[in-house]
TrEMBL record, chain A:
Protein name: DUF6894 domain-containing protein
InterPro entries reported in the protein's UniProt record: DUF6894 (IPR054189)
Lineage start: Bacteria, Pseudomonadati, Pseudomonadota, Alphaproteobacteria, Hyphomicrobiales
Organism of origin: Devosia sediminis
Annotated ranges, domain DUF6894: 3-72
Automatic annotation (TrEMBL), chain B:
Molecular function GO labels: DNA binding
Entry keywords, A to Z: DNA-binding, Transcription, Transcription regulation
Protein name (record): Crp/Fnr family transcriptional regulator
Keyword Ion transport: no
Length: 78, 240
């Protein structure tokens, strides 16, 4: 199974994934990243601030970035 | 001499008072010892059981699957546990038990178990207590899955495993084997594998816990147990 690396930016700092995760294929990697981003958002958005941004960049074994997902939480007051 | 069911004796002694004649009765139980590889099932959902199993060495996990194939791990069972003791009364099992790592189990026929319990009603009380403690673990698990943060869930799981392994004398240090994969942790704690990895990374950089390749090391017990809101009362360790 191919190994994918998920670098996570939580708006403040970038956590580079040095270990990676073995998954079936690119589509599984996309599902995994999507689920992770929504879980991290659900955990961290209620903790602080009216504005948050999270991103996950997924790399393959050779270091090529395959895709990036971004989650933005924005509050607008009237 | 070390006998296979000594781990069960240690387990029962950790949760209540075990008389010498109970130990003798347990040692005299006829058993069949078998080896499982990772992924092998000890018990399959829907099976009608005529026996139950004791974990002699290794680790079993109890799990169920949703229709889309997603898996929830409901409990881990190290040496000394009888995870399917319920089958003595609920013969059709509603969960699957699989080996998390190469595991040795001993199976005991229900009829032999029942004969022993009829002869020693005090042992019935002890086994009943064991199933109630299991139920107490499920309550705590449910609360964590529903209410706790990812870090707290992860911290609590390692605190519980440490405490359970220590109480039966399997380990005596903060460095211990816990042969689960990242994907097992994810399925136990209800999070993605990548989220589980990130959570472990955070506990590591906070100086609380190191976990890699099935080996755990608790670096700071007071802070890890505080983060996990771990109160061992629900394990009812010999508080009779």
């Amino acid at each position: 199974m191919p190994r994918y690396y998920f670098d996570i930016h939580d708006g403040e700092r970038l956590a580079v994934d040095h270990v990676g995760t073995e998954l079936d294929d690119l589509s599984s990697a996309r599902d995994e990243a999507t689920r992770t981003l929504s879980e991290i958002g659900a955990e961290e958005i209620p903790r602080d601030g009216p504005h948050r941004e999270f991103a996950i960049a997924v790399r393959d074994d050779s270091g090529n970035v395959l895709f990036e997902l971004r989650l933005t939480f924005h509050t607008r007051s009237f | 001499m070390q006998e296979p069911l000594d781990v069960l004796i240690a387990k029962l002694a950790s949760i209540g008072r075990l008389l010498p004649e109970y130990e003798t009765a347990i040692r005299q139980l006829p058993i069949r010892v078998s080896q499982l590889d990772r992924g092998d099932d000890a018990v399959m959902e829907g099976q009608i059981m005529g026996h139950c199993c004791v974990v002699i060495e290794g680790l079993l996990q109890r799990h169920k699957h949703m229709q889309d194939g997603s898996r929830q791990i409901l409990s881990f069972h190290p040496a000394g546990d009888i995870p399917d003791l319920q089958s003595l009364h609920l013969r059709k099992v509603d969960y699957t038990l699989s080996a998390t790592t190469p595991t040795t189990i001993a199976t005991i026929r229900h009829s032999d178990m029942q004969a022993m319990l009829r002869k020693h009603p005090g042992l019935t009380d002890l086994f009943w207590r064991d199933t109630l403690v299991d139920a107490a673990k499920f309550l705590t698990w449910m609360m964590l899955i529903g209410q706790a943060s990812a870090e707290a869930r992860m911290a609590h799981l390692f605190c519980e495993m440490f405490m359970r392994l220590k109480s039966v004398g399997t380990i005596d240090s903060f460095e211990f084997p816990f042969k689960v994969t990242q994907s097992d942790l994810a399925d136990a704690l209800g999070m993605s594998i990548v989220h589980a990895n990130r959570t472990l990374q955070e506990l590591r950089s906070a100086g609380l816990l190191i976990f890699a390749s099935g080996q755990a090391e608790i670096l700071d017990w007071p802070r890890l147990s505080e983060l996990g809101q771990f109160d061992p009362a629900y394990l009812h360790l010999a508080d009779e």
